[in-house]
Amino acid sequence: MLAVIAAIIFGLGFLLDLVGARIPGGFSGMTFVLLGLTLLALHQAGVGTASIRTGYSNWRGGRARR
């Protein structure tokens, strides 16, 4: 989920950079790029990637074969 949000923020930053616009308060295209990189780093660290199924022991969420 964080990767999708990061992609949206990268898109906004790209558009702001193309038109050369600045949002009042010091936000520019580079601000959105840095925010997107932060979200991607959190995604890679495993934040926000919890599975809905939590009762299983292996990463696939199924039963182990014996």
TrEMBL record:
Keywords: Membrane, Transmembrane, Transmembrane helix. The chain crosses the membrane at residues 31-56. This is Uncharacterized protein. It comes from Nonomuraea composti.
